[in-house]
Amino acid sequence: MTPDIRPLVAGNWKMNGLRSDLDQIKAIADSIDAELAEKIDILLCPPMTLLYVATALAEDTALLVGAQDCHTSQSGAHTGDVSAQMIADCLGEFAIVGHSERRTDHGEDDATVKAKAQAAISADLTAIVCIGETEEERKSGRTLEVLGRQLEGSVPGGATAETVVIAYEPVWAIGTGLTPTPADIEEAHAFMRRTLADRYGAEGEKMRLLYGGSVKPGNASELMAIANVDGALVGGASLKAVDFLAICEAYRTQH
Ligand SMILES: O=C[C@H](O)COP(=O)(O)O
């Protein structure tokens, strides 16, 4: 945690979720009480097919809703793509960009991720920019070098704490049940904080830095207590309301 930074717990449903799962979104939205809402922001990013219904379910609750990607343009001849403006039109407030699965599956490089983040910001969304090293990069001692390069290449100039959130997701920790040691996470987040503060000054000091990769109810408290970890980006454990809410609960007794 970072004093004076409001934590964000974000759920990324990835390519999961059918209409029959809308009850999970409703359960999450309806379970966020005033005490928890006062302490943290809680965000859910369902697949695009459920986005508009999700924002309707979240209306008049503290649940925030976002998307998992956006295009670099706001409209045009891009079959199958969805723009940041369309996400905002569906009342989404966030867009994840540069998730490692998109970097791998769709060949998205840092320049593309930066353009997507810029498109999100231009549509008044907050961009959650994902970065993280592969297993091979960690084993060869290049983690911080990779994070520095990705921050430089993926985060737009002029980013502020309002417009950008950074999610550190070691690729090898995603969906594997493995997590870095608390010391390794602390080192990575301290590095990101220094880098962002050097580049963005006071805004970099306030930017939210999430940890993602096998966050579960059982390890959330330990992970969220690490210095400069201002929340979580949760994959698998966000699919069930009871698990996602248990992760959010890690904050109830803190602050
Ligand atoms: O966006 C979420 C991350 O990729 C983490 O996924 P996971 O919690 O299933 O490891």
Report the helical percentage: 40-55%
Kindly provide the name of the CATH class.
Alpha Beta
The CATH topology annotation reads as TIM Barrel
Q: Domain count, please report it.
A: 1
Shape: globular
- Going across the major beta sheet, what is the strand order? 1-2-3-4-5-6-7-8
Classified in CATH, the superfamily is Aldolase class I
> Which architecture does the CATH hierarchy give at level 2?
Alpha-Beta Barrel
Number of strands: 8
Tally of separate helices: 12
Distance between the ends: 9 Å
Strand content: 15-25%
Low-confidence parts lasting 5 or more residues at pLDDT below 50?
none
**Major sheet summary line:** 8 strands, parallel, barrel
Order of helices and strands: EHHEHEHEHHEHHEHHEHEH
The bound ligands are: glyceraldehyde-3-phosphate
Q: Descriptors for this entry?
A:
alpha/beta; binds glyceraldehyde-3-phosphate; TIM Barrel; 12 helices
Task: Please provide a written account of the structure.
By secondary structure, this protein is α/β, with parallel strands linked by helices. It has one domain: Aldolase class I (TIM Barrel), CATH 3.20.20. It is built from twelve helices and eight strands. α1 packs parallel to α3 (48-58) and α1 (22-31) runs parallel beside α12 (241-248). The mean pLDDT is 97. The protein binds glyceraldehyde-3-phosphate. The site of glyceraldehyde-3-phosphate has 14 residues, from β8.
Topology of this protein?
Blueprint: E1 8-12, H1 22-31, H2 34-39, E2 41-45, H3 48-58, E3 63-67, H4 84-89, E4 94-97, H5 100-105, H6 110-122, E5 126-131, H7 135-139, H8 143-154, E6 164-168, H9 182-200, H10 202-206, E7 208-212, H11 220-224, E8 231-234, H12 241-248
Parallel strand pairs: 1-2, 1-8, 2-3, 3-4, 4-5, 5-6, 6-7, 7-8
Helix pairs in contact: 1-3, 1-12, 8-9
